[in-house]
Design brief:
The protein folds into two domains: about 70 residues, no CATH class; about 60 residues, no CATH class. About 15% of the residues lie in helices and about 30% in strands. The longest helix is centred in the first third of the chain and has 14 residues.
């Protein structure tokens, strides 16, 4: 039985997103320290940057994740130029909040309102080509519910 080129290509799909492991620590450290130095910042392996010494313990055993995106260079069909799929992203931890309130004006009329935050996880001043938004969005909504016969009619605006 021969294997077709299509079958072979299916096995080697790129890019590949996989969970990091401690074998990646050296490459991750080189990458992180290189980025820090680009911004004239000194790496701090004993404090701020200690998490990348042991990826498996720092992230996985504490309930987090750390992914590595593997890419391969490829040759452009038109120009023959070798291109890369470099992707960079850095995210910070964010907490968003929301609350809502209903005011029962009468048996057949309810007034509603809500407020929700949607903060960006993108780190300011980070060069990234994956996260497109730096917006912190605040959503304010209001609406009413009223009864016509046995039917509740809801209308709202955000």
């Amino acid at each position: 039985m021969s294997v077709s080129k299509t079958d072979d290509m299916k096995k080697n799909i790129w890019p590949k997103l996989r969970l990091a492991n401690n074998k990646d620590c050296e490459n991750i450290t080189d990458l992180v320290y290189g980025i820090l130095r680009e911004y004239d910042l000194e790496p701090d392996p004993e404090s701020t940057d200690a998490d990348i010494k042991d990826i498996e313990y720092t992230y996985f055993r504490r309930g987090g994740t750390f992914f590595v995106l593997e890419t391969e260079s490829f040759t452009a069909q038109g120009s023959g130029e070798v291109l890369t799929n470099d992707l960079t992203q850095e995210l910070k931890s964010v907490t968003n909040y929301g609350f809502g309130i209903d005011f029962f004006s009468s048996e057949s009329l309810i007034l509603s309102g809500s407020f929700v935050t949607d903060f960006t996880a993108r780190v300011p001043e980070t060069e990234t080509n994956h996260s497109v938004s730096t917006w912190n969005i605040y959503h304010i909504s209001g609406g009413t519910t009223f009864k016509i016969g046995n039917t509740d009619i809801v209308q709202s605006i955000e």
